[in-house]
Amino acid sequence: MRIASFFLLSLVCSSASKAQTQASFVFPFDTSSRWEYEITYNFDPWHPGHAWLRFTKDTLLLNGRTYRILSNGSRALFYFRQDSTRIYQFNARDTTEFIRYDFAKKPGDTLSTTLKPSSSGFVVLVYDHLTQVLNESRRTLSFQSTDGIVWDDIADTIGVVNFNPGGTDVWYSLTGAMVNGRTYGVLTDVPGRAPRGPTCLSLLQNYPNPFNPTTTISFTLPASIKVRLSVYDLLGAKVEDLIDGELTAGSHSIQWDAADRASGVYFYTLWTPEFSDTKCMVLLK
């Protein structure tokens, strides 16, 4: 449904916005700003969560480039770097990068493929127009990819308004922000406040990543439930089960020691009777 909507929207908005002048677009990339999002899960839309996101330190990754971490305080969601009007995202699957945003493009323009060397998905600027964002009139750009990995709305000077991380069943919607000392919208949480109990199933990105030879995998459960956490190699063969049994509600973490494993890309999957999610990690010796 999303891919079909993408093509329809791109045709409509491309013709409607071609004439818009390409004024300077400001993307807040500093480490002092923070953004608060309501998180909606497609499989459990009645129990949304909240998260604060911010850019943290710069880090050198496997491709020899330096990226800034977009983090929720406990894990990295994305690794971004900025070059003029472009925002590049590090792709851990093959240690390349792709252009997630380009603020100099016009509606209908293609930015890049998402999963190199494969060209199955490509990012397109879908629309460019004025919208109301947190009670502010802002020029807003929508970037989408045909494989669903990118589905983002970006507002001038405010930042990312909506996004879907990596084509998952999770949707982040901006409810408030503190950008360059100014507050936008409504802030319901204060960074540093004791965390609320989990309301949804959530599998977090392992940390550190890349790692050698140990890394920690964390996840949250809203209720006691039977779970299985498994590690797979790049070909999809199971390496081992880290957890297989019933766990109580709350936050859980387990360390994976890969001292006897070869360097490379691995995947870990959290399974429950009604939920599964998979993330990628890189062992670098």
Q: How does this structure look, described?
A:
β12 (170-179) and β13 (182-185) form a beta hairpin. The protein is 6% helix and 55% strand. It is mainly β and 285 residues long. Strands 1, 2, 3, 4, 5, 6, 7, 8, 9, 10, 11, 12 and 13 form a 13-stranded antiparallel sheet that branches. It has one helix and 20 strands. It has two domains: 2-185, no CATH class; 202-283, Immunoglobulin-like. The N and C termini lie far apart (42 Å).
The poorly predicted ranges are 1-22, 191-199
Radius of gyration: 19 Å
Number of strands: 20
Order of helices and strands: HEEEEEEEEEEEEEEEEEEEE
Helix count?
Answer: 1
- Please, what is the average pLDDT? 80
| Largest sheet composition | 13 strands, antiparallel
Overall 3D shape = globular
Oligomeric state: single chain
Quickly count the domains.
2
Percent helix range: under 10%
Which structural class do you get from the secondary structure elements? mainly beta
First-last Cα distance: 42 Å
How much of the sequence lies in strands comes to over 45%
